[in-house]
Amino acid sequence: MLTRSRTVLFLAGAMMVAALGLAWPLRADEAPGAATDAAIRSAIQRALPPLESGASGYVAKVRCFSCHHQAVGVLAFTLARKKGFAVSEEVYQSQLRQALNDLKGDEAAYRAGRGQGGGTTRAGYSLWTLTTGGVKPDATTGAVASFLVGRDADTGFWRTNGSRPPTEASSFTSTFLALRGLSAYATPELQERVEARRKSAREWVLKTQAKDHEDRVFRLRTLAEVGAPPEEIKAAVDAFWSTQRADGGWGQLPDAASDAYATGTALAALREVGGVPAESATFRKGLQYLLATQLPDGTWKVTSRSKPFQPYFESGFPHGKDQWISMAASGWAVVALAHALPGK
Predict the structure, then answer these.
(1) 236-276 pLDDT tens trace
(2) Distance, CA of 72 to CA of 70 (rounded, Å)
(3) What is the Cα 301 distance to its own chain's centre?
């Protein structure tokens, strides 16, 4: 079975940096308000309780899987735990159960090639959640992998399934998620088809350019996932530096202000697959933006750009009708900050 870990991807990025003689400027001496380890740890410690509250509140009210709550929540909780932070085991396991049970409930639809509402994005984020949480392959994950390998087989990529920016609006996002899920959960009999899809996705991503920030984030991740040449990954990394704002953050759109979702996703991708050192001055500048914009309650607020289509309910995370994207933003902010701390 094909398996790839974020550790392997990061090491590949680091090797790329060394091989090409690339370097990013190291940070200057720490100044007041800088992204010190103490400041970063304090920010993460304050962010975890509202993230846990939102995650547990969501699963208490609905059965369906959420990219914002389960997927990004598990990414944040997993990395925080590796860095020594306490995360409720009950909350953590409940997110994995929610993701797996949601897939199990529609396993027959996956086997029939129909999948669920949300298509590739929902299936891919679900599998990313499960593999991050160490859930082993079973009949359900195999059914989802079978769905993914057959989805959009007439194209060189996986199409986005909706227009709910930023998480459901980019075919780079859906393509990465499909490849990531297949790497972790494709059954042996699917391997030949998986390799064919990976080859076509590689050709597609190398010739297709990003149009906005979400595209840039997941194009970089896709390039790493398909083993693109180092110079292609370097060019994708450079695209981030050209769009970093004076305040250290990134915006979702060219004319939009910096926000924690765009900044967190950028820093996470740069660190995990771009080979960018946590000590680089530009990376630290992004961390400083996150530290400066965290609210007293430990969260980051981002205004939604998507039109709601589900009945509104409170999940336990603040910010009212902006809580879904703010939950994702806060989770990605924790991921980005945690990547700057020592340890695995």
Answers:
(1) 999 999 999 999 999 999 999 999 999 999 999 999 999 99
(2) 6
(3) 18
Structure tokens at 51: 């993230």
> How high is the pLDDT of residue 310?
75
The phi, psi pair for 280, rounded to 5°, reads -65, 145
3-class secondary structure per residue, the chain: CCCCCHHHHHHHHHHHHHHHCCCCCECCCCCCCCCCHHHHHHHHHHHHHHHHHHHHHHHHHCCCCCHHHHHHHHHHHHHHHHCCCCCCHHHHHHHHHHHHHHHHHCHHHHHCCCCCCCHHHHHHHHHHHHHHCCCCCCHHHHHHHHHHHHCCCCCCCCCCCCCECCCECCHHHHHHHHHHHHHHHCCHHHHHHHHHHHHHHHHHHHHCCCCCHHHHHHHHHHHHHCCCCHHHHHHHHHHHHCCCCCCCCEECCCCCCEEHHHHHHHHHHHHHCCCCCCCEHHHHHHHHHHHHHCCCCCCCCCCCCCCCCCCCCCCCCCCHHHHHHHHHHHHHHHHHHHCCCCCC
Alpha carbon distance 11, 31 (integer Å): 30
CB contact at 8 A, 298 and 50: yes
Position 1 scores a pLDDT of: 40
Rounded-to-integer distance, Cα 125 and Cα 275, Å: 23
